[in-house]
# Entry
Amino acid sequence: MKHKLIKIFNVCLVLSFLTGCWDQKMLKDTMFLSTVAYEKQKGNKVISTIAIRSYTSKEGLLVNKTYHVAGESPRDDRTKINQQVSGIVMSAKKRIILFEDRLAKEGILELSDVLYRTPESPLTAKYVIVEGKPSTIVELQQVGEELIGEYLDGVVHTAEANSLVPIETLQSLCTVLFDEGKGLALPYMKLNTENKTVDVIGTALFNEDKFAGITLNPEESKVLLLLGNQKDKYMIMSHKINIHDKKYVVSYDVSDAKAKMNVKPDAIHGVKVTIPLRVKVSINEFTKNEMSSSALTKNVQEEIEKVLQKKAEKVVGKLQKANCDFLEIGREVAAYHPSIWKRLKWRQDYKNISINPKVQVEIIHRGIIN
Amino acid sequence: MNKNSISASQLFFTILQTQIGIGILGLPYNLFKTAHTDGWISMLISGCIIQVITLFHWGLTHRLPGLTLYQMTSKLLGKWGGNFLNIGYVFYYIIVSSVITVLYVNVLKRWLYHLTPAYVLVFLLVVIALYFAKENVRNIGRFFTIVSVFLIILVLLISNAYKEADVRYLFPIGHSGIQNILLASKEGSISMLGFEAILILAPFVKAKSTMTLKMVMLSNCIVTVLYVYIIIACYLFFSPDEILIVPEPVLYILKATQNSVIERIDLVFITFWIISVITSLIMYVYISSVGMQEIFKKKTHRPFVPIVLIFVTGLSIYFSKTDNLVAALSQATNYLIYVFIFCIPICLLILSWIRKGTVKNEA
Amino acid sequence: MALLIKRRPKRTKSPISLEEKEPKTEIELGTNVEEILKMLEERLDYTSDIGQRWLKFNHERALLVYFVPLMDSIKLNDHVIKPLLIEKEGEIKEVIQAASITPTKDLDEMISLMSRGASVLLIENDPLVYAIDSTKTATREVNQALNEKIIRGSQESFVESLDKNLNLMRQRFLDGSLIVRYIEVGSISRTRVAVLYLKNIANVEICNTIINRIQQIEVDGVDSGSIIEEALEDSPLSPFPQLLNTERPDRVMGNLLEGRMAVLTNGNSSALIAPVNFFSFYQSPEDYNTRALYGSFFRLLRIFSFFVAMSLPAIYIATISFHYELIPLDLVFTVKGSLENVPFPPIVEAFIMVLILELLKEASLRLPSSIAQTIGVVGGLVIGTAIVEASLVSNMMIIVIALTAVSSFVVPSNEMSTTLRILSFPMMIGAAVFGYLGIVFVLVLIVMHLVILESITMPYLIPLAPFRFSGLKDVFIRMHQIYLNEKPANAKPQKRKRQKAIRNWDSNE
# Structure
């Protein structure tokens, strides 16, 4: 009898496993979302433009199909898309999410909640703010031979590698948004109608999670990254300088940059921050065609210093205007000067503190010719 | 009992694996709620507290050598008192096993297997425990030793978090105040449960009594260091306000790391984590069935394992239905832990000192 | 627990009496030779292959009776008949020039000796009959090992004759510590089984256990070597083999030197080695014949192939059915594209492919060698390509299954390779039902089973299960012989020290 019971138990156990594979999601039936663009519509609705990538194995061609939906929130939009698609829509391979600047002004956190709450979402995706309507970008469908999803991903990655925009993924921006002592800056893009491509035209500054409306142009974005010690692999800058009253153009490669932060309490401003920035550059292009004397080199060095200093001060001004603490001064204060931190209300007082960048440039290489 | 014995190093791995279970996933979050980013200091303090309690437990096994916990209770409190306490322990361990199962099934359901019914996941765990918990201590020791290699993989995976670490989150150190830090160490102590297995395993260890103590203390040390490592990784990775919304920071870190070969490492991690959960589960089921064996005076604990597991299954299936029930069960268990793990062995130790003369003569 | 059929069956047999023999048929004193002959022929049902040679010896009639097919004509003519004819009288033992002369009174024993190739001399009025060994067993010559080829090293292999095998083994141990115990198994076949061990090295308890177990076998005949294996195993229902099967004498020699025992059966060209652990199946004599570095590399490769063979199809099925977010972006579209037109779920694809593979393998075993090449081409290229074109199976699946099949043949032991292929099925089913959780579930069960498994009372997963760090030197890598001064504890040998040093010249210079 005992044996029989055991046998019945075993059979029931095995049967219960065979009744179904509940969580099976077949790779065959899924449609991968490659990009989403969110726009604002009247009446607080959100329009999503979604590019879904399909693969036809017969000719080996890749095609995209774009969908427009209007709904209450991103997840609602997804539900509406599901009604039109012949498979299961899966956002696990999403790489770039585009936001219209108007929509971003109202706050991106409420639109991103679904991405943090569901386990399948890709936390390594990137956000991009677009000037104008991002649906036009997604409608491009293809740029050259690449599909729009890969293209956008590649563009942002290249911009990051060139130290044009800060590297922020969904996860890192959540960390920044939940920290009072840090500020968010995201890549800023525009559709280039002439070439039918997308242009990364700078960085968008955020006040908490709302787009502040203030952007930095490419030069200023690079300086911002230098100040924040976030230079990536390459950074090439070029600008005009004045040598003996003649204008020349110098282009250089920033090989090394170190920015320190010195925080001192200050009676008037609350906090006085000095940012000494040491930049080491290698000259790539100098339209004077020769730089043989060390006096000339020194001159060029000083001029570059002047230009960079001006830019740095401008960047800092814009940061304070936008109330964006990208340089993480707040976090420094909170960690090392807790008494000051307790006294100040950082979100309000950030505008009033004094930030003084001091740029020092050193030319280490001049290229292979003099 | 010479065939059924384990060596000192096997004891070390057994206790290590029993201690590392389901608690680590949510531990940084729990500590943060009370002690803010000083949770790691609380963890260190918990480590010390646990070492002290281990000394008490070991003292008990040292004074009454060759006896498991269940035999000790009968010896010190007489037949009826001992049996009563043993029944208490059996039920306590059944509940602890259910808590482990329920917590793990809950994590699985929320992160990976949304549609699979909870009872199927419970069955999975129970079946594996059923197959192995009826083995003797020697085989259990060997198995636990082998699977300890996965801990290295765990440590390596977590070290990814240090890439994006921001040290400033930890400063200023000690800002939450001594009181909060001490309060949080209560949480930490609960996550280090498992060292009390020494009360059951001590008679089987083929080594001197001091060696047993060294092994258990070493295991406590390593678990403390590992937990502190993981907690600091979480605190460096997330900003303080963010941790409040992330109840399982360890998994979240793995989800967010990017790799060129594998994308979502947390999937791999959760499925391998079942091994650590299974080891804890097997040990508690084993302890429970040994208790039943002692109460019913049988030769082996093998026939009692299915009975224990039926209870565990029933409890787990009931409590894993909603998130609220899960929380309620873990809360209730906390009180039981204080009674059974902290208070009673100390009382037993004091009792054994009081009855110094009689006990020593009989031993 | 009858759950999952992997437990050692309980011993409920009653002790066997070894003395159950039929009552002896005595040949009475002064019996007529012809009467004995008649009794013999009646017992043997007048079988036609008995030969008779009538002689006169000691002034009495004598008859030499033998099985004609078993006789070696030289031995019979020159060493038995010739001396009898020349000497005409004397002590049998001093006349006949044979190495073994067994006098007996029992008819059954006489028949059994005759079956072994003795010619029996019946002398009138002599109570004893003399069985003289003059046999020539027809057997294969020692040649290359068919199933265990290696590149460098000894190429000899065992044959079916037990004497030739023992010849090969005796040549390798010249100091006399090789001990051989004969045991007769099978009431009809009376097959001789030899248990070999080294005197001061092998563990006495294990030795006695093995000999005991063989002695207690009650069968009619040993027609296949696996009867001995099934009789000796602790858990015959486990998928893992607990005795190592080999047909190479150098492998047996290495194992004997480590303290293990070898069981050789007459009529079977492979030896069984016990007790073994899991990692012995992954050691090939080639590792020791080549340099330490190459040996280590190939060992690691084999361990890797173990994991691939067992779990690769399961991992693939689980990844594309449950967790495809794991695949990096660029690969996921390739995989998806290959799955586009396939109507079946991945588990069905996998089963189809594995089934076809096993069919091909079975068929190629029985093909005459002339057609084997063609069928190989047909099977491999045509079926493989055609199936993908017909969209029955995706080409990723074919890659996966082909890799799995290749990895499962990397194991030096044939049994273990079959084990791996069989074990991949529950893993595939687990993967198809639960994804990665199912794979881990089955894997944990397998590891648990391995921990419990024992090979003649030695734990199967040594040196991992009772963890012996020194034992790891020879498991995952093959360390240089300088470091292998002690025997591994795998077989609990009596003496641990194996060698003092092999590079004395280096330390003496």
